[in-house]
């Protein structure tokens, strides 16, 4: 087993000034800054002790049997599709069971993921050399953080689907590559099925997602959240919405995922049999605000590490996103334009603004 002292990212050394700002809060910052820090601190802690909630749980057996050519009764399929659309409108999050990904694949994925993150930090930062991932796949912390509440206490490998499928074909004996490929192949098909259902419930049957969300535009993200010594002060992942159409998440039993519901933070109760689905910004824009991209975050744990794996259904950069209904709440924009705006906001402001930047004049009037 690798020593965590050489596998963990150097959070304390890299963000030393941010930690000093906490330790000398009353001395080193002005009253105005202190007020801002206290407000941010309250945001981090808010909801951390709230009762866990169970997201809507939807059994996908009926719709997946339809995909495989062995259809369930029409009433069962349509009820399942309606549940998916309703949860996407009311929650922006839901869980799915009988999702087509075997428990064996999920267990193997978690085991391989743990072994990967236990590798020395220096090797992880040279991911192209040691793991055959594209350079820049490994990410940790928050390079633009200017205060402790903008810091994400986590590390991740953000891997294009094309990398995964290519390496699996060329290195079938590699357990990590083959396991990721098995998971990615199934989860990408599931994502497309869910997207098509959501479009259908808006009255649109099209090949839009199949044509625009391709292996070279979609990603798998392997996440690890190390134990954090000051968990009440720091996020595992800052509050945000996802800049995609939808996300499929497999998380462990540790918990830590929270989302906003009825204007307050609530904790999501882990379900070992389920995958979590959440709507992204692009689907909210495409659906003209019908489906909700909900702010969520990960809170840290002082003693236990947490693992999760996320699949992001993303289009090509030149794909144009426009609302499927009129009058449109959002102006038309390309995915590249959206990504550029998010990047600029994070660099200048420390956090993402997202869809409010793209409201039409009529929607803001």
From TrEMBL:
Keywords: Dioxygenase, Iron, Metal-binding, Oxidoreductase. It comes from Crotalaria pallida (Smooth rattlebox). Its EC number is 1.14.11.13. It is an enzyme of class 1 (oxidoreductase). GO terms for molecular function: gibberellin 2-beta-dioxygenase activity; metal ion binding. Residues 26-51 are annotated as: Disordered. Residues 214-315 form the Fe2OG dioxygenase domain. The keyword Oxidoreductase applies. One of its GO terms (biological process) is gibberellin metabolic process. It catalyses: gibberellin A1 + 2-oxoglutarate + O2 = gibberellin A8 + succinate + CO2. It holds the Pfam family 2OG-FeII_Oxy. The keyword Iron applies. Belongs to the iron/ascorbate-dependent oxidoreductase family. GA2OX subfamily. This is gibberellin 2beta-dioxygenase. Signal peptide: none annotated.
């Amino acid at each position: 087993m690798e020593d965590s002292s050489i596998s963990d990212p150097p959070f304390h050394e890299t963000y030393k000034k941010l930690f000093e700002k906490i330790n000398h809060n009353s001395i080193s910052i002005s009253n105005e800054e202190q007020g801002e820090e206290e407000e941010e601190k309250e945001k981090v802690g808010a909801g951390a002790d709230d009762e866990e909630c169970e997201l809507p749980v939807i059994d996908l057996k009926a719709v997946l049997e339809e995909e495989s050519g062995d259809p369930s009764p029409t009433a069962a399929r349509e009820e399942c599709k309606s549940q998916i659309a309703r949860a996407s409108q009311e929650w922006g999050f839901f869980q799915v069971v009988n999702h087509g990904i075997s428990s064996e694949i999920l267990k193997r994925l978690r085991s391989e993921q743990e072994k990967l993150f236990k590798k020395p930090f220096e090797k992880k930062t040279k991911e192209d050399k040691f793991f055959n991932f594209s350079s820049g796949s490994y990410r940790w912390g928050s390079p633009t953080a200017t205060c402790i509440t903008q810091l994400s206490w986590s590390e991740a490998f953000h891997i294009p689907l094309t990398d995964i499928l290519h390496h699996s074909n060329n290195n079938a004996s590699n357990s990590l590559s083959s396991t990721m490929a098995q998971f990615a192949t199934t989860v990408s098909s599931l994502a497309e099925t869910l997207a098509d259902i959501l479009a259908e419930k808006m009255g649109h049957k099209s090949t839009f997602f199949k044509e625009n969300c391709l292996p070279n535009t979609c990603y798998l993200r392997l996440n690890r959240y190390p134990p954090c010594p000051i968990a009440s002060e720091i996020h595992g992942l800052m509050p945000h919405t996802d800049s995609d159409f939808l996300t499929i998440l497999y998380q462990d039993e540790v918990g830590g995922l929270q989302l906003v519901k009825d204007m307050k933070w609530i904790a999501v109760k882990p379900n070992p049999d389920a995958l979590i689905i959440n709507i992204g910004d692009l689907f909210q824009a495409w659906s003209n605000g019908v489906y909700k991209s909900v702010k969520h975050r990960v809170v840290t744990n002082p003693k236990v590490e947490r693992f999760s794996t996320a699949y992001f259904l993303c289009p090509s950069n030149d794909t144009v996103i426009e609302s499927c209904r009129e009058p449109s709440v959002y102006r038309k924009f390309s995915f590249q334009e959206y990504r550029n705006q998010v990047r600029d906001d994070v660099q200048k402001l420390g956090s993402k603004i997202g869809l409010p930047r793209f409201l039409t004049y009529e929607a803001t009037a």
